[in-house]
Every structure is written in C-alpha cells, then in structure tokens.
Amino acid sequence: MREGLLWFDDTVRSLTDKVVRAADRYQQKYGHTPNVCYVHPTMIDNQETQLGAVRLLPTRTVLPNHFWLGVLEAKGSS
C-alpha cells in the first residue's frame, strides 16, 4: 500500500456503515476506491472479511475504532 487513510469512528453505527463512510472519504481524497481496510482484530472476530470491494484484514497495529484504508497492490507490481 503506497498511500492510505487512517479513519476514526467510535459511533454506534454498524461496522459496514463505518467502512462505507471511510471508503467514501478515501474516494473523495484520492480519486479511487480502496480495496483493503486494516482494523483491530476485535472488530472482525480476528478473521478476514469482505465488504463489497473492500477486504477487511485484522492487525493489532491498528487501534480499535480506527480504519486504515488503501489499495493493496498485487505482488510483483510496483
């Protein structure tokens, strides 16, 4: 991931709504849709999940209620 957006949302919205709002902001800022979002494992039961075009991946380096969005490039591309 070359560029990313760190989004914070501690509202009572659903996880889907939070990711959609964050992805919309990413689209506005960078001009293209993200395909990956890193979240704290407690937010997705420590399993990879897909929400539309965005793949949610657990990582402990992202704090709860934070969403790190970007474009994950295929291996071998630069």
Concise synopsis of the structure shown:
The chain is an alpha+beta fold and 78 residues long.
Describe this structure as you would to a colleague.
By secondary structure, the chain is α+β, with helices and mostly antiparallel strands. The protein has one domain. 21% of the residues lie in helices and 28% in strands. The chain has one helix at 15-30, and strands spanning 4-8, 36-39, 49-51, 54-58, 66-70. It has a five-stranded mixed β-sheet, covered by helices on one side. Strand 3 and strand 4 (54-58) form a beta hairpin. It is globular.
Order of helices and strands: EHEEEE
Low confidence ranges: none
Strand order of the largest sheet: 1-5-2-4-3
Shape, principal axes of CA atoms: globular
Q: How many distinct domains?
A: 1
Radius of gyration: 12 Å
The percent range for strand residues is 25-35%
Largest sheet entry? 5 strands, mixed
Going by helix content, strand content and strand pairing, the class is alpha+beta
Helix content: 10-25%
> How many E strands?
5
Overall mean pLDDT: 90
Gap from first CA to last CA = 10 Å
Number of helices: 1
